[in-house]
Amino acid sequence: MTTGLPDSTIGQPILEAHQLTKRYRLGATSVEALRGVSLSVRAGEFVALMGPSGSGKSTLLHLLGGLDRPTSGEVILDGETVSRLSDDRATRLRREKTGFVFQFFNLIPLLDVRENIALPFTIAGQDPRSGEPAARIREVIELVDLAGKERHRPDQLSAGEQQRVAVARALVTRPALLLADEPTGNLDYTTGGEILHALWRSCVERGQTIILVTHDAKAAAYADRVCVVQDGRILEEIELGRREDHAATPLITRLAQLGL
Ligand SMILES: Nc1ncnc2c1ncn2[C@@H]1O[C@H](COP(=O)(O)OP(=O)(O)O)[C@@H](O)[C@H]1O
Ligand SMILES: [Mg+2]
After folding, report:
1. In the chain, which end has fewer C-beta atoms inside a 10 angstrom radius, N or C?
2. Contact 183/106 with Cβ under 8 angstroms?
3. Pocket test for ligand 1, best of 35, 58, 182, 213 (most atoms within 8 A of CB)
4. How buried is 214 (Cβ within 10 angstroms: 0-12 exposed, 13-18 middle, 19+ buried)?
5. pLDDT tens digit string along 45-98?
6. Nearest residue CA, atom 17 of ligand 1?
7. Which residues are near ligand 1 (CB < 6 Å)?
């Protein structure tokens, strides 16, 4: 059975990380969270960072998205060296070029679905009720399949719907890079599948570049490529290619062959 899709939408490198290290100081001791990670991600690619708890995945994601700085090494996002920018410029770059989705949805309880999704525009001082922002909001609401629920507040939504609002909010600015840290970690299997499907759709239909952090091979199997993270390093890169069935067996087999 062939389920391969043409990956002609995948383009030039949009993100490059060179020899990243990160050391956290804890009083007199320190933790080496990353020990020299290099990574290149092409525009339109869906990459999973997979590894056990404590392996350094979140640290790496935060450095790639400019939420934190490496101890050494460089991150270049869309031509800009994120790791060398001032705090102000790093914040601006992050707002303009990245979207984040976390394990906990981080929605604003008093705002409805549409208002939560509109937040990036509101924060930037743009009116989300008309013009381009309004069109983009409608578009992402369709993408994550929440049409009809625009006026619901988070407490009137299921966990899966809440996370889909968070995905829509991260996508509404059309970021060069979407970063998701265990976005299904707080959800049951079926609901997790809805979120992964929404990420996958954004990749296939909009050419969205995605980096997904997960400890779960079934989630990682949605990606075009899986980087196996262990002890602060990328141990192995597994090219899965773009597959419509998202079957985890090829990945699990490959991991077993590698003794992982
Ligand atoms: N802010 C921090 N201060 C100190 N140590 C940290 C901090 N964040 C992460 N660590 C440590 O760095 C290592 C990697 O953590 P993390 O990147 O969160 O891993 P993962 O996301 O794969 O579970 C762990 O040993 C963790 O305890
Ligand atoms: Mg983590």
Report:
1. N
2. no
3. 58
4. buried
5. 999 999 999 999 999 999 999 999 999 999 999 999 998 889 999 999 999 999
6. 56
7. 24, 26, 31, 33, 51, 53-59
